[in-house]
Amino acid sequence: MSLDRVATTGVDLLADAVEAQAVDVTRVDWRPPMPGTEADLATVAVDPRRAGANKQAVAAMLGVTAHLVDVGPASEVLGLQRGEFLHAGPPIEWARASGPLRGGLMAGAALEGLVDDPEDAVALFESGATVSLEPCHHRGTVGPMAGVVTPSMWMFVLEDRATGRRTHCSLNEGLGKVLRYGAYSPDVLTRLRWMGDVLGPALRAAVRATVDAQGPVDVTGILTQMLQMGDEAHNRNRAGTLMLLRDLAPALATSGIAPTDVAEVLRFVGGNDHFFLNLAMPACKLALDAARDVPGSTMVVAMARNGTDFGIQVSGTGDEWFTGPAQVADGLYLGDYGPDDANPDIGDSAITETAGIGGFAMATAPAIVRLVGGSVPDALATTRRMHEITLAENPRWSVPVLEFQGTPTGIDVTRVCRTGILPQINTGMAGKVAGVGQVGAGLVTPPAEIFPQALARLAELSTRTHTG
Amino acid sequence: MTGPTTGHVELRPGAYADSVTLLQVSRTVAQLPGVAAAQVAMATALNVEVLAGMGFDVPAEAGVNDLVVAVRLDDPDVLDEVLAGVDRALAESTRRPTGSAEVAPHRTTATALRDVHDEQAVVLVSVPGPSAVVEAMDAVEAGRDVMIFSDNVPVEHELALKRAAEPAGVLVMGPDCGTAIVDGIGLGFANVVSPGPVGIVAASGTGCQQLLALLDHAGVGVTSALGVGGRDLGAEIGGLATREALRRLDADASVELIVLVSKPPAPEVATAIQQYAAGLATPVEPALLGAGQPDLTAAAERVLQRLGHPVPTWPVAEPADPVASVAGTSLRGLFVGGTLAGEARQIVGETLGAVGGGLDDLHGDGHGVVDFGDDAYTSGRAHPMIDPTLRLDHLARVATDPRTGVVLLDVVLGHGAEPDPAALLAPAIAAVAAPVVVSLVGTGGDPQGLERQRAALAAAGAEVHLSNARATRRALELLGADR
């Protein structure tokens, strides 16, 4: 028996003294935690449930395989009623809603025929008498950007076949002036109606026929492959989109749907590099939902933004949202838009980072690192940095350039507070004025204070448990 | 091509760059002098719409494979420069990044241990007390032994760590563990010793170091000295780490005798530990510190006797004499080792009655023995074995105080301690009129050089002992208090 390696956390002098004895030393770059978190970090560190709870949460998450089992209108698959609106992020009321969220809701009201002119919807939402707002997350759903879901919108239905649990997401509209970025012009509504009349039913036919012929499409499996093809599944979904087409095209071709419609569907899906995002997101939510409600677990199970607030939910704290002001992304702008035109961070799409892809998998998507004026080494460093705040590596989602290391998975509230390293999110930027649409794309982080908030709650629950 | 509005649009058929690159190029070009707005993009429908929104007229023949360069200028004369700037930005956008992809160090113990595949590796934690439990728990959860050098760690944190460690068979050394030797490697403040038949379990850092120094002088080696933290044998912790450390040493075939250095345990803990020790194959010799107990030197002698090893004469350099001109009657003890100070206070107290431990006592009319390594003197300051300034300040005051009758100091060598403690101490000792007695705790292998330190201190006029108990008794003698 011999001592060949010592890991040191703290003063360098003691590390030097060990090194002087010809022993290998691994030095931790320790720095003080986020201000005011020492006591709560200690309380949570000594919670005897924590380690086991986090193992359980991680295992539950990694055990989920998401399958695309159906496509259908929200009225049918979610039971969404006329006047019910889902939106991205934590709960919010119209009065505090940002421009793009308002724009998306106005487009949704016009789509449902609640108003003829989207502008008339303002009065409808101000009175609030016949309409209600609810987060997508509360209904087993995720929505990109504004994330507005109305009863007539068609939804992907994903299922964990082991448990029968399901999650949902709307169909992606493409880039530019679209509802999810807060646009509500007539062409936006025309596209949404075509999606409801042609795209949704065609996809339903194709998905159902595929399920019958060879079983449902394995969305988790496509994610595994696309991460090795340059996609990080948040801001780049090009390979994933084409693999989805590959899997559905035969059934679509033989569905009996008019060839002109089939062609238009193929053209629309194939021409929208982000189409697969709306499958990546519910797949991530399906996995993370399996990790919810493990008492003592410090793992983040949702990060979501409504354009005003950024919220997280944590496995050990149930359905409680910890919120702070959403930040404006740092990135590149379309046309002559600039930082003054951008709305703060919006959308449920940060569920991808919560699950360990998107910004966490930057290393595997060097093609998009220039979104931040960054370089390939920056991308590698970003993914490595996220390993400092996560509990595990996802063995299925591996990054070739990092020697096939798994993506950093399961954000640990305590490690964020300990290191001050915030989760890195890749995102699109919506214009802050309702109706404008997309103005750019870039990188953003959550507001730092929500992690100490969640930590304080974990500490409180831990103390309560210990003292009976 | 420049129109009256100073807008300029040109198509570059066949040129291609991805949209993100072009967004970056557009941003670079927009920042050039004289440019009001700029957009460099592939002529997709979306981009043509964006360009139209910016007031540019894109030629109808533009297709998705054409690159559009559109700029609006405040100054029409800069067009050529700006177009050159576009070319430059496009060229730069495809350059290979330079600079190494150096991997940043890990930020937590848990993440660092992912890369430490050696199961025997030990973790050494020395972060501020309130954060120590967090880092140490990472080690426990990874199944790695951990030494917690940090002080000011709440006892409930210590208990939680040791409870978590117990079922995993993990050893938690500390908190406030200054010294350990694991398989011959010194952690914290540790002396260089040869491997040998003795294993030490120590709830006291400098107590352990005194034993190491005495046994080394006697020619007896020590394979492992496992610290457990000063509170381990108290009622709250109940000897959790002591039991694990005993188990480890018992399992080590090279250990013939285990020495347990500690303050007297809480009674119920003493019983439990005695029972545990009785069940081991290796004999355990207790070396208990405090009132009514033999001192550390006596304990070392007992260890040698049990091993059948002759007890040597403990070395003394440069015997001092009472100084006739000194009329002072106070004993001034200035220590860096807590256990050494405690032992001195105990021995002095047996002869002179109660001895104060505060700074006021050091400069008062009576006797005082101060531990400069106490938490009260290390807040925001390194331990005096590393930073000697506070003790030197007080030594200078003591030196000129006419009430000073004798000065008693300790100097502790070994890994982690300052590289040449005698260098600063010798001139300070030379300035003391009263006799000075030093316990120099170290081994021949220590990096500071035991003989060199001893010679430097002796040359300054100090009487230098290896045994702290002997040094203390000698100080009493020089004070005339032993009679």
Portion in helices of chain B: 25-40%
Structural class of chain B: alpha/beta
Shape of chain A: globular
Q: What is the CATH superfamily label of the largest domain in chain A?
A: Enterococcus faecalis V583 domain
Structural category of chain A: alpha+beta
Q: End-to-end distance of chain A, in Å?
A: 44 Å
What does this structure look like?
- The complex is a heterodimer of chains A (468) and B (483).
- Chain A is of the alpha+beta class and 468 residues long.
- Chain A has three domains: 1-30, no CATH class; 50-61 and 293-466, v583 domain like (v583 fold); 65-280, Enterococcus faecalis V583 domain (Enterococcus faecalis V583 fold), CATH 3.90.1710.
- In chain A, 37% of the residues lie in helices and 20% in strands.
- Chain A has 15 helices and 18 strands.
- In chain A, the strands form six sheets. A five-stranded mixed beta sheet of chain A has the order 6-8-7-3-9. A four-stranded antiparallel beta sheet of chain A has the order 12-11-10-14. Chain A has a three-stranded antiparallel beta sheet with strand order 13-18-17, with no helix packed on it.
- The longest helix of chain A is centred in the middle third of the chain and has 29 residues, at 186-214.
- In chain B, the strands form five sheets. Chain B has a six-stranded mixed beta sheet with strand order 13-18-17-16-14-15, sandwiched between helices. Chain B has a four-stranded parallel beta sheet with strand order 10-9-11-12, with helices on both faces.
- In chain B, 38% of the residues lie in helices and 19% in strands.
- Chain B has helices at 19-30, 45-53, 79-93, 109-113, 129-141, 155-168, 205-217, 240-251, 267-278, 296-306, 338-352, 359-362, 375-378, 389-399, 421-430, 450-459, 468-479; strands at 7-13, 35-42, 66-73, 122-125, 146-148, 172-173, 179-182, 185-188, 198-202, 222-227, 257-262, 284-288, 316-317, 330-335, 368-371, 404-412, 436-441, 462-465.
- Chain B is an alpha/beta fold.
- Chain B is built from 17 helices and 18 strands.
- In chain B, strand 17 (436-441), helix 16 and strand 18 form a beta-alpha-beta unit.
- Chain B folds into three domains: 7-93, Alpha-Beta Plaits (2-Layer Sandwich); 109-306, Rossmann fold, CATH 3.40.50.261; 316-479, 3-Layer(aba) Sandwich (Rossmann fold).
- At the A-B interface, strand 1, helix 1, strand 2, helix 2 and helix 13 of A face helix 1, helix 2, helix 4, strand 4 and helix 5 of B.
- Strand 1 of chain A pairs parallel with strand 4 (122-125) of chain B, so a sheet runs across the interface.
